[in-house]
Automatic annotation (TrEMBL):
Organism: Microbacterium dextranolyticum
One Gene Ontology MF term: DNA-binding transcription factor activity
Organism placement in taxonomy: Bacteria, Bacillati, Actinomycetota, Actinomycetes, Micrococcales
UniProt protein name: TetR family transcriptional regulator
Gene3D superfamilies, sorted: Tetracycline Repressor, domain 2
Chain residues forming the annotated DNA-binding region: 41-60
Family annotation (Pfam families): TetR_C_6 (PF13977), TetR_N (PF00440)
InterPro entries (alphabetical): BetI_C (IPR039538), Homeodomain-like_sf (IPR009057), HTH-type_TetR-like_transc_reg (IPR050109), HTH_TetR (IPR001647), Tet_transcr_reg_TetR-rel_C_sf (IPR036271)
Domain HTH tetR-type: 18-78
Biased composition (Low complexity): 85-102
Region feature (Disordered): 75-107
Keywords: DNA-binding, Repressor, Transcription, Transcription regulation
Amino acid sequence: MGPDDQAPRTRGAYAKGVARRQEILDRAIEVFAQRGGSRTSLRAIAQEVGVTHAALTHYFGSLDELLVAVYRESEQSSPDDAADEAYTAEAPAAPNGPPSGATESVSPAEMMRISAVENREIPGLVQLYSSLVASAVDGSHPSAHAFVTSRFARLRDELAERVRDLQASGAVRSDIDPGLAAALVIAASDGLQTQWLLDPSVDHEAALRLLDGLLAPPR
């Protein structure tokens, strides 16, 4: 058997492996959407997912790596994309403002509010995210730490850029630091999300709208 004969077999095995991993991941998302992200063993999760412990270990290595993979896969879009889609679909044209579908005026707090609305449709994944953050802070879970740290950095960059754009248009106060404003919006959204998990009466959306008002220039 020559190299040309071996290559198709290798590609076929790889493709099957990718498909099998995705199949397991899809089932794991369903499980975590129901159960949340409470700490448990990889063996127990394998039983819930319906695969062997060896299979789960082969494709994901550790419980933290599985949790990160599940959350990454479950993220439908970035805050920018979510805000753009929701604004285009739902927001009417404001009097003397941008036409419907214009995304430049969507504030960082509004972007996080839209994401929060989507997240609350699947409370288990909100719990999973909270579990990942707790594991990252713990310091003994490198996969969770790398994921959460990278996510926060990406969100701060994206939201800070949006703040700069809004400052240039006069929609956000010019005397605040964009990076700090971005960090504040993320902290507020995540903290409100945690409060909502503990007490569903907490109005996450109204609180973020209040933050928008605080960041707006005086009229």
